[in-house]
Design brief:
Number of helices: 11
Low-confidence stretches: none
Helix content: 40-55%
Number of domains: 2
Structural class: alpha/beta
CATH class of the largest domain: Alpha Beta
CATH architecture of the largest domain: Alpha-Beta Barrel
Shape: globular
Mean pLDDT: 95
Strand content: 5-15%
Number of strands: 8
Radius of gyration: 20 Å
Length: 271
């Protein structure tokens, strides 16, 4: 078995090899140089420059407001930090839906200006023309099915998707279509674990889950959520590995106290 941790660079081909060898794929979001450098050095396989930046970086209530220019800015910052991980950049709302020419132009901008390694977009049969056109230009595409946050106003809720048979069958059909069209991987968000397992077993490309159970080929979380920087977001699938919200609040509080009490800077901390 290949020792993937020692690889100097993760590629789309590497991810397919990992699936076939039964090695799980680790994926996290990042939006800036500092965090991207830390998680790349820690051994993450894939970094997603997610449109979730709209929420965690800009404070919007959905992913819809973030622009292509803003996504490119975040991706540029991440790419500068990364030596090993594959960097995938989300295509924001409005940059690919309903117009395959616009989709191609948007993805070309991401690849040229940000030097990302791949793009990700949401949807199945309704975006397949855009997927096909982007891939025809030599740009790798990661798909995204299940709960697709850019369509939140159509769904009207962030609840689990594809619980009903009709929607589950459509999801399976869309996943197979995306694979046939040439996607190198697919994210499944917030769907039943049994359905995600069925999809993963039926595809030759990697399936990465977020709230899709343990039977897929890898997992992705939003960095700020898994580090405990956000407090109000508490889905069942989220495991917090730190409590940075409280740690940072405590550190800032101590700093404020030290400044006001003239304890900082002390004699050794000045020139």
């Amino acid at each position: 078995m290949t020792t993937f941790k020692k690889l100097k660079k993760i590629t789309t081909h590497t991810l397919v090899e990992m699936k076939h060898e039964g090695v799980k794929i680790s994926m996290l979001t990042a939006y800036d140089y500092t965090f991207a450098k830390i998680i790349d050095n820690a051994g993450i396989d894939v970094i997603l420059v997610g449109d979730s930046a709209s929420n965690v970086m800009a404070g919007h209530i959905s992913t819809l407001p973030i622009t292509l220019d803003q996504m490119i800015y975040h991706a540029q910052s991440v790419v500068r930090a990364v030596n090993r991980a594959l960097v995938v950049c989300d295509m924001p709302f409005g940059s690919y839906q309903g117009d395959s020419k616009n989709a191609l132009n948007s993805s070309i901008r991401i690849m040229k200006e940000a030097e990302a390694h791949a793009v990700k977009l949401e949807g199945g049969v309704e975006v397949v023309d855009s997927v096909r056109r982007i891939i025809s230009a030599g740009i790798p595409v990661m798909g995204h099915l299940g709960l697709t946050p850019q369509s939140i106003y159509k769904f009207g809720t962030y609840s689990v998707r594809a619980k009903e048979e009709k929607e589950a069958e459509q999801l399976i059909s869309d996943a197979k279509l995306l694979e046939e069209t040439g996607c190198f991987a697919i994210v499944l968000e917030k769907i039943p674990a049994k359905l995600a397992k069925k999809v993963a077993e039926s595809l030759t490309i990697p399936v990465i889950g977020i709230g899709a159970g343990k039977y897929v080929d890898g997992q992705v979380l939003v960095l700020h959520d898994m580090l405990g920087m956000t407090k109000e977001f508490n889905p069942r699938f989220l495991r917090r590995y730190m409590n940075l919200h409280d740690d940072i609040s405590s550190a800032v509080g101590r700093y404020v106290d030290d400044v006001k009490s003239l304890d900082f800077p002390n004699e050794e901390e000045q020139y």
